[in-house]
Amino acid sequence: MYDYDLLVIGSGPGGQKAAIAAAKLGKRVAVAERRDMMGGVCVNTGTIPSKTLREAVLYLTGFSQRDMYGASYRVKSDITIGDLLARTAHVVGREVEVIRHQLLRNHVDILGGTAHFDDPHTVTVHGAARGDHNTVTAENIVIATGTRPNRPSQVEFDDERVLDSDSVLQIKQVPNSMVVVGAGVIGIEYASMFAALGTRVTVVEKRPSMLDFCDPEVVESLKFHLRDQAVTFRFGEEVEKVEITPRGTVTSLVSGKRIAADMVMYSAGRGGVTEELQLEKAGLSTDDRGRIKVDDHYRTEVEHIYAVGDVIGFPALAATSMDQGRLAAYHAFGEPARELQSLQPIGIYTIPEISYCGKTEQELTKEAVPYEVGMSRYRELARGAIIGDSYGMLKLLVSTEDRTLLGVHVFGTNATDLVHIGQAIMGCGGTVNYLVDTVLNYPTLSEAYKVAALDATNKIRAVNMFANGSSDESPTPDDPPAPTSPID
Ligand SMILES: Cc1cc2nc3c(=O)[nH]c(=O)nc-3n(C[C@H](O)[C@H](O)[C@H](O)COP(=O)(O)OP(=O)(O)OC[C@H]3O[C@@H](n4cnc5c(N)ncnc54)[C@H](O)[C@@H]3O)c2cc1C
Fold first, then answer.
1. CATH at residue 220
2. Could you list the residue range(s) of the whole structural domain that residue 359 is in?
3. Using a 6 Å cutoff on CB, does residue 321 contact ligand 1?
4. Whether pLDDT at 487 is above 50
5. Best residue among 42, 99, 185 to mutate for probing ligand 1, ranked by most atoms within 8 Å of CB
6. How far apart are CA 40 and CA 255, in angstroms?
7. How far is C-alpha 426 from the chain's CA centre?
8. Among 120, 198, 224, 325, which residue has the least CB neighbours within 10 Å?
9. From the CA of 26, how far away is ligand 1's center (Å)?
10. Are residues 199 and 139 in the same domain?
11. 140 and 285 together in one domain
């Protein structure tokens, strides 16, 4: 008889949801987590603090109101790091409480400390104090230990002037200048936050471009906005060394350029947190980035051990990790479960934000899928004018063969929320006709869907008219059949 039916290692989104799902099935469950990390990277150093910081930046700088009140508009003129981090600490504290309470009211035991395997069914959890350890056995185990930022060995991180995405949350003052190394999602989100605060940011990226998986028009718009806020991009450039000087830092690039800045933030990828687990004692191993391989049911090579969340790799997002956790628990206990929908949204919380779902124009062109683009610009929407967003846009990609939605790409205010309308229509196999024939609240940003849908269908109609040489719209596969007379 084991101590637990399920032991979860890590309390981030994946671990939490695995534990709760198993508890709801009436199982005896425990979660092992370091005492100061309840809620995982997500709550303590990743998603929640970075998104709260962004909200504080947007509010205190008055950034989103400047279209309306002018470029010098500020809610607070001298924004301190204390102003920013107070909000973050408040939200993180609340989230930790919510998670702890949820686990406890579902009778999930919390084992405080760092866990390692003793054998495939036995785990010891070491607390911070000497002699504080707890050895438990479990029938099933879910590993949800997440990732940590990579630190290139040739760079000296002092966590004051040379930072990563964890230590950036502990800076003592808002820098006047900053180098961000790596233009991935995390790097570019922080670059845009500091730029909005007035920091002169230089982004160094070894690839020739950034966010290649997004719509290029959207990425161009983001780059335009960031350049407008004094962000300099150094694409195709590699960092040779970073020196810490009494005045700040000097970053030397392989090309010979040198960049002086108060701080350097590295965002050079993340590696799985697996080294403390002593996986070999459970019969498991990892790839060279510390990640664990799983099958479609999140099962590792060892039958009763599952792994979920960032530690298994792509897409390494909080929402996906939650569902993986829930499904792993269901699979472990033979509970029937449907697999996740393959259509998943991507949200990038830059300022302004980006979100998309479905295909990009490049993908459709490569796959030779004919499509039409429907475009809506926030500045032409009443809600866009009211909120002072003159740059936002929503782009629909519509199949010209059957009028289904193939992709939706949004840039600007509420992009990460708006995308879900398109996702829902696509997920249900809906066509652009749904948007044309649906009444939406006015004035809203959702109206962008209606405008883009009409734009796309007008273009499709124009092609048909030109092709047929007629002045009428030719019927499309989804048009309702003409009504027939009862006496026909
Ligand atoms: C700066 C940043 C911003 C992000 N923004 C977003 C965003 O906007 N949207 C989004 O969807 N995702 C975002 N992410 C990604 C998101 O945070 C992760 O996808 C998510 O946290 C992964 O969840 P997880 O379940 O893998 O566990 P994690 O949240 O990674 O937590 C893992 C936990 O396991 C614990 N652990 C590790 N080893 C042990 C051990 N041996 N014993 C006990 N406990 C252990 C750790 O202490 C940690 O608390 C962001 C990430 C970062 C870094």
1. 3.50.50.60
2. 352-468
3. yes
4. no
5. 42
6. 39
7. 20
8. 224
9. 26
10. no
11. yes
